[in-house]
Structure formats: structure tokens, C-alpha cells
Amino acid sequence: TAFEILVAFLQAYIFTTLTAVYLGMATHPEH
Description:
By secondary structure, the chain is mainly alpha-helical. The chain is built from one helix and no strands.
């Protein structure tokens, strides 16, 4: 359904965002 597609998209978006934030923190430990 469209709802399932939306949920899957949100999960992928959140996962990507958290990964980017984690990598940013890992590469800039001074912050």
C-alpha cells in the first residue's frame, strides 16, 4: 500500500540521516 511505501521511505530517510550525523561526529571528535 501507499502507507507501507511511505513508512519504508521514512525509515530509510531516518537511517541515512542518523548515519550521516554519526559519521560527522566520528570525523569531528572535537565537536
